[in-house]
């Protein structure tokens, strides 16, 4: 069974690199299924990385039409892909207990319950380590994500929840596209790394640079107030494009 794994890339090569490493560590046989969807990245470091990995992985360069692949978004790519494929953001920490052949299990479960989109639940543990503040509609990150843990599905083998899923290691099953979406918890639960103050992949300087160019991001709304409270940006008088970041006293 070969299921394409589409990893979304936009100026965030460190996350992409980490996702590829995680997948290959869990199941090396999935390596040939990995495809990078480059949504018009213009960050020099990301472009350099993509040039390097083209020797080993398929990289699809596209206009930035968003991260979705569906009948009405990035439709040409949707039509090109087989009946089942994985679509994921790269900024996830996969579960250390994820089964070796986890995609095969997802495929079986998707067919069993006729699920259009089946993806990983996002952990809401370590609440105190998440960015505080208003994330969505007056809710903190934890409180917003909590709603997706409300409607458990009766399945004796897996911990499943009836909840919308976007691009969190989501298995797309075209046969049931118009049906429901389900999140897998238990050993399939993952962490969304940008939710956390301590980020093991990106430094505070890298996060500042990234979010300064991605102010539409929902994470920017919690990152920016925290950053402004804890850090100060000092411009370089001799070069307006350069600066350094220091912790506030």
UniProtKB/TrEMBL annotation:
<dbReference type="InterPro" id="IPR001173">
    <property type="entry name" value="Glyco_trans_2-like"/>
</dbReference>
<dbReference type="InterPro" id="IPR029044">
    <property type="entry name" value="Nucleotide-diphossugar_trans"/>
</dbReference>
<feature type="domain" description="Glycosyltransferase 2-like">
    <location>
        <begin position="5"/>
        <end position="75"/>
    </location>
</feature>
<dbReference type="Pfam" id="PF00535">
    <property type="entry name" value="Glycos_transf_2"/>
</dbReference>
<protein>
    <recommendedName>
        <fullName>Glycosyltransferase 2-like domain-containing protein</fullName>
    </recommendedName>
</protein>
């Amino acid at each position: 069974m070969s299921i394409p794994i589409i990893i979304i890339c936009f100026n965030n090569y460190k996350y992409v690199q980490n996702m590829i490493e995680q997948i290959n560590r869990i199941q090396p046989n999935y390596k040939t299924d990995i495809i990078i969807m480059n949504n018009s990245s213009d960050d020099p470091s990301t472009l350099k990385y993509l040039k390097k990995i083209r020797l080993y992985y398929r990289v699809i360069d596209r206009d930035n039409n968003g991260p979705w692949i569906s009948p009405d978004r990035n439709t040409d790519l949707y039509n090109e892909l087989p009946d089942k494929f994985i679509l994921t953001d790269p900024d996830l920490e996969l579960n250390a207990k994820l089964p070796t052949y986890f995609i095969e299990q997802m495929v079986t479960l998707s067919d069993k319950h006729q699920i259009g989109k089946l993806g990983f639940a996002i952990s809401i543990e370590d609440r105190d380590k998440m960015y505080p503040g208003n994330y969505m509609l007056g809710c903190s990150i934890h409180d917003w994500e909590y709603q997706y843990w409300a409607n458990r599905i009766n399945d004796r083998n897996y911990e499943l929840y009836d909840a919308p899923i976007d691009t969190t290691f989501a298995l797309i099953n075209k046969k049931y596209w118009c049906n429901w979406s389900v999140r897998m918890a238990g050993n399939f639960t993952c962490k969304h790394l940008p939710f956390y103050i301590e980020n093991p992949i990106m430094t505070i300087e890298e996060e500042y640079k990234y979010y300064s160019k991605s102010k539409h991001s929902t994470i920017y709304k919690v990152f920016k107030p925290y950053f402004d409270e804890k850090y100060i940006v000092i411009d370089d008088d001799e070069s307006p494009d350069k600066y350094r970041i220091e912790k506030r006293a």
